Amino acid sequence: MTERRPDFDALVPDDLGSSERERLRRVHDALVAAGPPEELPSRLAHAPDVQPRVVPLRPRWRPRLALIAAAAAISIAVFAAGFSAGDHHATPSAVKTVTMAGSPLAQDAHASLALFKVDSAGNWPMKLTVSGLEPAKSGRPFELWLTRHGKPLALCGSFVPTRGGTASVPMNAPYKLTEYDGWVVVEEGSMQPVLTTA
Amino acid sequence: MQRVDHTAQSDGELIERIAGGDRSAFEELYGRYARAVLGLAMRRLGDRGRAEDATQDAFVAIWRSARTYKPERGAGAPWLYAVARNAITDGLRRTPEPAAELQDGPGTEPDPADQAASAWTAWQVHRALEVLPAHERPVIELAYWKGLSQSEIAKSLDLPLGTVKTRTRSALARLAEALEGELE
Lengths: 198, 184
Description:
The complex is a heterodimer. Chain A is of the alpha+beta class. Helices cover about 20% and strands about 25% of the residues of chain A.
């Protein structure tokens, strides 16, 4: 296809001052050099599904749940007062445990992600347990992301492992997990997984 | 939650809001830059599907890196360009281009410095196009990328020729203002 370069003199009348004319000519030249912008396909009609940043252990409280929560807290406090020893099986059990393996960037790393029962506000409490993952040389933390087709799309929290390469971190996923198909751990600011479910 | 009108905010202000987790600021920035990022990815990758993937990667990177933006170091556009370009390059490393066959004779590839300058110009111009009002943008697109004359544009848009001329001149002036100091 041969492109017809528009004639600047036909577009801009010569009754303009020379400096203004020169200003518009620079724009004209830039438009010609740039070429047409790309048309966005439907899959790019909206920004990617990144969610608001999540701070670990801070579930999305609905205001009207606050009173219920307060009442529950009081009940738990009363219960706890009489609970001094013996059965400690009150810790909720995981409804699902996901295992993660180290990528070539961290071959010795392993992790398990315990998912607990979703709460009434739609938060999935979870606990990430990591071993064999040395702290990043950059000093930056690692991040746990939900992925779809391998792409990190929803941040669940961040952590810094110990020098021994371990971490045990409570996190929270306020997302519909069915919209995703995997998890990865990456160094903050990187797209390269160090741990993955794939 | 109360929605904020971000349309009057600079790119840098939007990036700072994104750093605070403001999804609506992210949407506004996406609207301003999605075409520019896709164009950059197309220039670099040359493949539509990979370029679309890279565009998504670039915006995820923008979301995640927003905290590293320092307004005292410069405007938002160059920062966005750098983050997008790096994300596209990262994607290229993950799925390398097929190896090209070696050819005899002098190379026909453009000079890398020229390519970089050209990509930056296109980035700025495509970003600036987003500031045009809806009634001015078609006259620019038809003139520059469809090759229509002013008379043909008037006929195509069913407008008086004088209106097309006025809108063209106004659009060029608006673009000049948006690109002030950016074009040599």
